[in-house]
Amino acid sequence: MVSFTMPLASNSQDPFALARRLRRPVWVYDTDCHSIAFANQAACELWNAQDEASLCSRDLSSGMSLTVAERLKQYQRDFVERDAEFVETWTFHPCDHPITVDVIYTGFVMPNGRMAMMCEVIGEEARTSETVRTANALLHTDVKVALFGSDGTILYHNPAARSVLPSADCSSAQLFVDPGDFPRMLQDVREKGESKFVTQIYTSSGEKWFDLRTKQCLDAASGEQAYLVTAYDVSELKATTDRAHYLAARDQLTGCYNRSIVQSDWSELGAIRRGPAYCVIYIDINKFKHINDTYGHSAGDATLKTVADRLRSHTREGDIAARIGGDEFVVLLNDASSEGDLHKRLNAIQTALQKPFEIGPLILEVGVSIGVFIKGANDPTEWSEALQRADMAMYCSKRDQLNTFTIFDDTIGAAAKERVRFEIEIAQAIANREFEVFYQPRIALSTNRVVAAEALLRWRHRELGDVSPAKFIPICEEMGVIDQIGEIVFDKVREQMSEWYRQGLGISVSLNVSPKQFQHDDFISIARRMTALADFPLSLLELEITESSFVGGETEVARRIQNVRELGFQVAIDDFGTGYSNLAHISRFPVSCIKADQTFVAQLPKSAPLLRLIFTLAKQLQSTTVAEGVETYEQLAWLRDNDCDQAQGFLFSKAIPADGFVTACQRLEARMANWAPAAAPCEDLDVALG
User: Fold this and answer.
1) Which residues, listed in sequence order, are joined to residue 217 by a DSSP beta bridge?
2) Could you give the angle at the alpha carbon of 517 between the alpha carbons of 513 and 522, nearest 5°?
3) β-strand 646-647 against 405-407: which pairing, if any?
4) For residue 329, which of 21, 283, 449, 454 is within the disulfide window of CB 3.0 to 4.6 Å?
5) Where are the beta strands (DSSP E) in 31-184?
6) pLDDT, tens digit, for every residue of 128-182?
7) What is the pTM for the complete model shown?
């Protein structure tokens, strides 16, 4: 066996003279040029070439597989890094005729300094087709195959395995990112005869994931115990799987965990913890819909991301921040055993979320409502119960507009249960149409006659008696059933007005429309349905819209009012003067009536200038003026003297059930006919009505 690691002595005219005399095929392969730089006669015969010149002129890259090309590059790198030699069985295809031989490869430094490879055939034994194909398969397969000794020394690796090794002389143990994986693999082999697991390996291109299969065997060369490893690169599959797990566990917009993960984590904590060791924080963004509607959904998304970032910055290892709804977040604190630490952390979260939000060029004061449930030793561990309690506490913060957090306690629990019961009863009342409509008379001050009435919703609870609309209307709006109640009131008012019209009583009725009703997409459709069913002049029906409905989106508000007027209804502004910043803008809205809020009437004579301004504005708009909440004769006298058109209030009458309204109005008009400013009746008119 002859191996050359450098050219022969420079004083020789032919550095390859000795190699030319060998009967075994010897040639030098220039890896960079993919050609043969020298070949003796035996090599020319092996390669089926006429002479050395013709063989050296061949481009051996033509038809060379990628696997072979990479293997030759591996040899070159190993020759540069260390004094190495390799003996392998190769199959050559000179002139498409396969020849399988054993070749020893050694490094050879070319005269120009580049590393080439000396190739010497050392044997051509008889082989079966199966053994030849097996050797060829090991050369070309992408499966990494390696054999290493019990001390971790790599005894053999096929080209695919060598392509990923960081260096040719590294040991097996050094390849594992987790140092404990190598001894674990050996233990599994000793105990079970084989080992199968996925692990991370250091490779020439960085850390990658491999599915390793290891079996114990004997080294065919030495007869000593060895381990055969087959490795499959599963990095892409692992990345895809990890990504799928990430997507399944995360909210895609904010990167926070989703509801299923926080629920699972809470359940795990419940199984291992005892006592007040963890808590759930429920966070709701205030007026988030306003942000979306005013500044667009991109601003809303940016707000959600900012909330998520601030929450994550205040969590510790083991905590979880999750987005569980549109603008709702949950933080699960893994360690809340110290009350002082808990309050410190809650204050930090509250402070972080109250800071202004920079959304592009905008600086928004967002604000949040926070509820907290701390798991006590005797509290249930079910996630639904924990979340519900935190939600109850959060609702208290939102309802009371607290600029802090609320911690759930038994008082909140009792109030929440009462609220749930009340919501159920409201739903039943809607289904059974238990709501009634009362009517409060409206007096024309020029004639002392009842010319209109305001329809007012009433609910007579079977246990609580008469429930104030101020109590149940806000709850109905939160429940999202205000439209259903609105339809009930529409139907009852329509039926009653039809009855009065048949009786010859052409009285006008004003009907309150909540801001949410007025802004709802179906409002115009409901109004249009009423026009089809009404058998009385629609001009007798007046829709009262509170002044707060006019704030923001003035063009859309004006369009809706115009649509209602075109259907034939009258439109009144209710509670006028309490919230509109620019009275001049009211001219944009085609209203037929302006109702001055009762707070101005109650403050007479202090509020006289403002009321005169409202009456003057109404005259210019050719709208009727109505004073609400009239309770004294002095107020009534002032309103007469200042050209107010109509008035209503307890001085005249409270709201009356429909079946007694006509009689009550007749008695009221009789009393009003005898009233004079200089001689006020000694008896309250409402009392006189009986």
Assistant:
1) 226
2) 125
3) unpaired
4) 283
5) 35-39, 85-92, 99-109, 115-123, 144-149, 154-157
6) 555 556 565 666 676 778 888 877 787 777 777 777 777 766 777 888 888 888 8
7) 0.51
